[in-house]
Design goal:
Length: 269
Amino acid sequence: MKLGFTTLGCPEWTLEQVAANAAACGFDGVELRVADDGLHLRPDATGDEARRVRELFDRAGVPVFALCAYASFSSPDPAALRGNCELTRRLIALAGTLGAGAIRCYGGKFADEERHAVAARAAAALKPLAAEAADRGVAIALETHSYWARGADMMEIVGAVDSPGLGVVFDVNNTFAGTGEWQETYRLIRPRIAYCHLKDDYRGADGRRHHVMLGAGDLPLADVLGRLKRDGFAGFLSFEWEKRWEPRLAPPEEVFPQYVHKVRSVWNG
């Protein structure tokens, strides 16, 4: 097991601060957010920029292990789907230069369509991209999220592509909070997990879910980590603290060290 975090949780840090704080907190690597807002890297970054970023994180001993990106593949609009495929090709090249093994993406939303048809369309778009990614030693990794939080639904896409260039980001809390289960999804996607996202929340009296520090919410953390440990999981457990979207959340200086302590104490307990 290795510990990382997505830079979604530290939107005010520079890349230099990300690298220094990741090392100081005892993380093993960083999931670097890549988005058009430039926090912390844009998808159109040049090769020279990417090489400088790689050198920065490698020197700090916390390599970039994944890109936290936003391509999705469910749109019925051919132009939108082409745009997402072009974005993914840029991300594959960027990941190769950065030395990142995975690119977090989404299955995507859909409205009045039958799920099997959407899955087939997404798989058709992803198949050539997965081949290109595999050639670069990279995997596109679809997150268990929203419409694709359940393992059986996710595997409609991943199984149809059937390539080492396409895997899954197992966001355990997305699945648990969205479906009420996590073990069956884990069983189905386990051979294709590129890495995991960990976060925690609870449903308040207002009916909404509220993000909290790991171990303070509804996620059955000990059960999840115990199962991963028994199965010999050696990949990254990446902390997804959504401060970019919820500025009221506690600062990374407070929650990142707590995450490292909590995961390691439960894992080794």
